[in-house]
Amino acid sequence: MSAHALGHPRAARRTLSLPWQHVLWLSGGMVLGFAVPFLFADTLELNRDLYYGVYGLAVTGHVLAWARFTGQPLGVMVRRRWRLMLALSVLAGSVLVGMVLRTEAATARPEGLELVAALGWRGLFYGLVDGLLLSAFPILAVFAAFAGTRLRGRRGGTLAMGAVALAASLVMTTVYHAGYSDFRSEKLRKPVVGDLVWSAPTLLTLNPVGAPLAHAAMHMAAVGHSYETDTFLPPHR
Predict the structure, then answer these.
(1) Coil, strand or helix: which one is 60?
(2) Domain ranges of the chain
(3) pLDDT per residue over 30-44, tens digit each?
(4) Considering the entire predicted model, what is its pTM?
(5) Cβ atoms of residues 180 and 163 within 8 Å
(6) How far apart are CA 37 and CA 58, in angstroms?
(7) Which residues are within 8 A (CB) of 78 and not within 5 positions of it... i.e. 6 or more apart?
(8) What is the DSSP track for 135-190?
């Protein structure tokens, strides 16, 4: 490679996109996923709505930094198989909403503008950020790590990468929820099972929007149906 090519920003960015670097970013995301709830929710006991803001900034900052420094084309990714992604997101979101309605008791909730604000912040915003960290980021990071390898050109290889990506998402979901003291129990099983559903839209399309949309549907259902839930809207005091 010529010195001129090395000096070009795009060429330099491509040299960063090596498998072990995606593993480092993924590992850093898992540390972040545990540390934010452990520090800000359990230790400092921030107000829930303030905590969601801190969590959102931390997650989006990490994912955008990963994309920037490894040359991931997020603009291209969000258009990838978008029709299939939307269909899968609606399907997965419907399953997750059904899970909320079947497993959670209805509780009192605010009304009017307060409910609208809660649906937007605790439901939509927190759900999108959660889906980004727990599924979209680990799945895309795993596939990016294998980019350019022989596995990407083989059906069996693609299935193997999908299995590794899903495993990474399950680990991220486990690590993140372990950051909350009340999830260090049998409750951890619920989000791990849910991960198998909300991961599907991104896993099957490699579109980063799919998992966050499905996840947001679940959280909005929890806000509207079971506002005092002790499962879907951590942290729980």
Answers:
(1) helix
(2) 3-225
(3) 999 999 999 999 999
(4) 0.89
(5) no
(6) 11
(7) 207, 208, 209
(8) IIHHHHHHHHHTTTSGGGGSHHHHHHHHHHHHHHHHHHHHHHHHTSGGGSSGGGHH
